[in-house]
Design brief:
The chain is α/β, with parallel strands linked by helices and 636 residues long. It contains 20 helices and 13 strands. The strands form three sheets. It has a seven-stranded mixed sheet with strand order 1-7-6-5-4-2-3, with helices on both faces. Strand 10 (526-527) and strand 11 (535-539) form a beta hairpin.
Length: 636
C-alpha cells in the first residue's frame, strides 16, 4: 500500500512540476511516472492479458479480505462486523460447493474453456460497441442530429441487398466523374526493344509535358512557391535554373554512402543547422534534426520518435498524441503506420485549437500534443505559447507543425510584422516539422524535422546489428536518398539568405493581406476563421461554394476545396504577387454568377463530388471513392 501511494504521489508530482526543457544537461529529459496504461481499459482492445490481470486483481482482493479478517480477529475488532462478513463469505462458498457437487464434469470443462476463450471476445465486442456509441455521441455533438440519423439509415441500408445495390450504383456515378474512361494514347506498357537517343527522349518528354497545367501565371494555389515575375517563360525562372544545375552536379550522390559523398553529408548537416537557426534553434539551443522527403515524412518521423520514447522511457505500449481537428492528415497517417492512438479535439470559431479541450484530453498515457503554425486548411496559427505552457505544466512533449508556413512566420517576425510566436524560443516546444520545398524555395522532396535534444532524435533512427549484409543504419524511412535534392536545399538557403527570404516574405504578406481584405468585400462570401499567414479560406452561407470552385476552374484558377465546413482556399505564394486584382475580380464574378441562380445544376463540374463527400455520413463510402481515384492514377 505504501509503495502504491508513493508511486501515485510521484505521478501527481510529475503532472504539476514544470520540465526544464532548456537545461543543457538534459534538453528533453522528462520526469518518470508510474504508468497504468498496460492494464487500463482500452475500447475495442481487450485481450487475454487484460482478463488475466483482472482475475489476478480479484484473487488478490479475496486473499486480502481473508488477511484483513484474520487481522481484525487478532486485534479483537468489532465482532458484529466480522461475523457479518464471515457469514456472507461462508454462504457464497457453500452455495458454490453445492452447485459444483451436482454439476456435470464435462459441462464444467466446457464452461471453463468458454470462460477463457469466449469471454474475452464477448468483452472485446462489448467494448467495440461502447466505443462506437461514444463516437456517435461525439458526431452528434459536432455534426448534428441529421448527420447521425443519415449515417444510421445508410448503415441499415447496407444490410439489405437492394439498399446495398442502390448505394453501389450511386458510388459508381461519382467514380465515373473521378475517373477517366479513355485509355491514354501511345502509352508504353512494355519495355521498348530498341532505345532512343538522348535528343529523341527529351523531345518525347517535352511533348508529354504539354499535357501539364501551367503554374507560371500565378493561377495555382500553392504548388510552386518561388517566382514572382510576370515573365511566364521558363527562361525568366532563374531560381529553378540554379536548382536544376545544382541537382545535375550531385545527381549520382547518395548520403547512405557518407564515406564517398562527404559533400552531401555536409550539405545536409548545414541545411539542418541553418533551418534551426531560423526558428529559434540557433547556437546553444540544443536543436538538432534531419532532412526528409517532405512534410509528411517529417511528421511521421516526429510521431515515431514520440511513440518509441513512450515505449522505452515510459513503458506505455499504446501512447496517445493529441491534435486539433485542423491538424494535417499526416498525423492520421502516422497513427495508421505506427500504432499509437490519435486523440482529436475541436477547434474554436476562429479555427484555432481549443487549448482547454487539449489539456482536458491529457491522460497518463499522453506523450505529446500538437499545434499548427499555421494550419493547412485555414492559415490559422494555433496558440503555441499557451500549448507550450500546457506541455510544461503537464510534462508532455509539444510538436509544432510548421511545414506550410514556418519560413513565412519566422521572417515576418524578423521584419517586424505581427505574427504569433511559434518556435523554439518557447520552452515547451520540443520538435518541429518545417518544409524547405515550400517557402524555403527548395526543390520538391525536401523538408526538415527538428528536435530539442539528441535523445529525441535518436528515437527516429533505425539501426540493424544482426543483418548478414553488415551493420545497417538509416536516419529516416528511406535507405538510399537523392543527394541531389539535399544539395538543392542547401543551395536555396545559400542563394536567398536572410535578406532574400525577408524581402520575399514581405511581398507575400502584402499580397496575403490584400486578398484577405478583398474577399471580405465580396457579397455572399466570408473569410473562415482568422488567418495569420499563407492561406485564406472562404465560404458562403448563401450559395454552394463548390459551384464557385467550378466557375473559378473554368476561368483557369486551381484552388483547394475544403470540407467541414464546406469552403475553398488559396495558398498565397510569390507567384500571386501582382495577380491579386485579377484573382479578386474573377472570384467576384464567379460568386455573382452562382448567387444569381443558386439552384442551377452543376453536373458537368466537380461541385456534386465535393458536396457529396462533405455531406455523406458514411465515410467508408468516401474512402472507397478516394481509393478508386488513386487506382485510376495508375491507369495507362
Amino acid at each position: 500500500t505504501l509503495k502504491a501511494a508513493a508511486l501515485e504521489a510521484e505521478s501527481v508530482r510529475s503532472f504539476v512540476e514544470p520540465v526544464d526543457y532548456v537545461s543543457k544537461t538534459s534538453a528533453v529529459e522528462m520526469p518518470p511516472r508510474h504508468d497504468y496504461s498496460r492494464v487500463r481499459y482500452r475500447p475495442g482492445q481487450v485481450t487475454l492479458r487484460d482478463v488475466a490481470h483482472w482475475v489476478t486483481v480479484i484473487a488478490v482482493g479475496v486473499a486480502s479480505s481473508y488477511a484483513a479478517l484474520s487481522l481484525f480477529r487478532v486485534h479483537n475488532c468489532s465482532r458484529d462486523v466480522l461475523a457479518c462478513i464471515e457469514s456472507v463469505i461462508r454462504n457464497i462458498r457453500s452455495s458454490a460447493n453445492s452447485a459444483l457437487q451436482f454439476a456435470d464434469r464435462d459441462a464444467l470443462v466446457v464452461g471453463t474453456l468458454a470462460l477463457v476463450f469466449v469471454l474475452p471476445r464477448v468483452l472485446a465486442a462489448a467494448c467495440a460497441t461502447l466505443s462506437a456509441i461514444w463516437r456517435t455521441v461525439g458526431e452528434l455533438r459536432t455534426r448534428g442530429l441529421r448527420f447521425v440519423f443519415e449515417k444510421i439509415v445508410i448503415s441499415a441500408l447496407k444490410l439489405v441487398p437492394m439498399g446495398r445495390a442502390y448505394i453501389e450504383r450511386e458510388e459508381a456515378k461519382v467514380k465515373a466523374k473521378l475517373m477517366s474512361s479513355e485509355p491514354t494514347q501511345g502509352a508504353l506498357v512494355t519495355l521498348p526493344e530498341k532505345g532512343k537517343s538522348a535528343e529523341e527522349v527529351v523531345e518525347e518528354m517535352k511533348s508529354r509535358r504539354a499535357e501539364d497545367g501551367t503554374y507560371l501565371t500565378g493561377r495555382c494555389s500553392g504548388v510552386v512557391y518561388h517566382g514572382g515575375t510576370r515573365d511566364t517563360s521558363e527562361a525568366g525562372d532563374t531560381h529553378t535554373a540554379l536548382l536544376s544545375r545544382v541537382y545535375s552536379m550531385f545527381a549520382n550522390s547518395n548520403p547512405l554512402h557518407a564515406d564517398i559523398f562527404g559533400s552531401v553529408r555536409r550539405f545536409e548537416a548545414e541545411a539542418v543547422r541553418m533551418t534551426a537557426s531560423i526558428v529559434g534553434g540557433g547556437e546553444g539551443a540544443g536543436v538538432v534534426g534531419t532532412l526528409t522527403s517532405g512534410g509528411t515524412e517529417s511528421i511521421l518521423m516526429a510521431m515515431k520518435s514520440y511513440r518509441d520514447y513512450a515505449r522505452t522511457e515510459r513503458g506505455i505500449d499504446v501512447p496517445e498524441i493529441i491534435v486539433a481537428k485542423s491538424a494535417h492528415a499526416a498525423f492520421n497517417k502516422a497513427e495508421s503506420y505506427f500504432g499509437f492512438r490519435l486523440v482529436t479535439v475541436p477547434v474554436g470559431r476562429d479555427m484555432r485549437a481549443d487549448v482547454a479541450a487539449m489539456e482536458r484530453a491529457i491522460t497518463k498515457r499522453t506523450i505529446a500534443i500538437v499545434g499548427s503554425a499555421p494550419s493547412f486548411p485555414h492559415g490559422v496559427v494555433d496558440d503555441i505559447a499557451a500549448l507550450s505552457d500546457v506541455a510544461r505544466r503537464r510534462s508532455v512533449f509539444l510538436h509544432v507543425d510548421a511545414c506550410l508556413g514556418g519560413f513565412v512566420l519566422a521572417f515576418a517576425k524578423k521584419r517586424g510584422l505581427k505574427v504569433p510566436t511559434f518556435d523554439f524560443s518557447l520552452p515547451g516546444v520540443t520538435s518541429m516539422s518545417i518544409d524547405l520545398h515550400k517557402y524555403g524555395f527548395a526543390q520538391k522532396g525536401t523538408s526538415c524535422v527538428l528536435y530539442r535534444g539528441n535523445k529525441l532524435r535518436a528515437k527516429q533512427f533505425f539501426v540493424c546489428t544482426e543483418w548478414s549484409g553488415g551493420l545497417y543504419l538509416s536516419p529516416s524511412i528511406a535507405g538510399s536518398r537523392p543527394g541531389g535534392l539535399i544539395a538543392t536545399a542547401w543551395a536555396a538557403l545559400r542563394h536567398y539568405g536572410e535578406n532574400g527570404y525577408g524581402d520575399a516574405v514581405e511581398k507575400m504578406m502584402e499580397s496575403f493581406t490584400e486578398i484577405r481584405q478583398g474577399i471580405e468585400k465580396i457579397d455572399g462570401l466570408y473569410v473562415v476563421g482568422e488567418p495569420d499567414a499563407c492561406v485564406v479560406a472562404f465560404a458562403s452561407d448563401d450559395f454552394d461554394i463548390y459551384k464557385v470552385f467550378d466557375k473559378m476552374t473554368q476561368k483557369g484558377w486551381h484552388l483547394n476545396a475544403l470540407q467541414q465546413p464546406a469552403s475553398l482556399h488559396i495558398c498565397v505564394t510569390m507567384r500571386h504577387v501582382g495577380y491579386e486584382d485579377e484573382f479578386l475580380r474573377d472570384l467576384g464574378e464567379a460568386s455573382q454568377s452562382v448567387a444569381k441562380d443558386p439552384s442551377a445544376s452543376a453536373d458537368d463540374g466537380m461541385a456534386p463530388v465535393y458536396g457529396m463527400a462533405d455531406a455523406m455520413p458514411d465515410r467508408s463510402s468516401v474512402a472507397n471513392l478516394l481509393s478508386a481515384y488513386i487506382e485510376n492514377l495508375y491507369r495507362v
